[in-house]
Amino acid sequence: MSNESLDNFLSGGRRGEFDWKRRYTIVSDIASVILYLHELWGQCVVQKDVKSSNVMLDSEFNAKLGDFGLARLVKHNQWSQTTTIAGTLRYVAPECAVTGISSSELDVFSFGAVVLEIDH
Predict the structure, then answer these.
(1) What's CA 14's distance to the chain center, in Å?
(2) What is the pTM of this model?
(3) Domain holding 77: CATH number?
């Protein structure tokens, strides 16, 4: 992607190019992807690693979510038991770190952490 990852953009000294319209577009794009994965597709896809370094920005600053290496298919409104914690720790919901249970709520928590990074 021409603007690399959101993480590189935020930490690379280009934060000044982030007006509120651009921030809103990025947040909306990520939210749309998560909605599609959790609710609109046939099965629920829990990405399990939503973080700023997995959000790619194209030339128009449209956000694309990538790196589905940890993703799991689960039935809608069900949890998935894991034996190990997956994902980047600062983006993992505390209850998942304790219980090892992941669900779509895990991605929503991680999305909130990304929104805070964008707003910071």
Answers:
(1) 21
(2) 0.83
(3) 1.10.510.10
Nearest-angstrom CA–CA distance, 109 and 116: 11
Options 7, 19, 29, 49, the catalytic residue: 49
Measured CA to CA, the distance from residue 78 to residue 120 in angstroms comes to: 33
Concerning whether 49 is annotated as a catalytic residue, the answer is yes
Beta carbons of 48 and 71 less than 8 angstroms apart = yes
Instruction: For residue 67, give its domain range.
Output: 6-119
- Amino acid at position 8, single letter: N
pLDDT digit string (tens) for the chain, length 120 residues: 677 889 888 887 666 677 889 889 999 999 999 999 998 988 888 888 899 999 999 988 899 998 887 888 876 665 555 545 566 777 888 877 677 777 788 889 999 999 999 887
| Structural domains of the chain, count | 1
Examine residue 37 and state whether it is found in any structural domain, yes or no: yes
DSSP letter (8 states) at residue 70: T
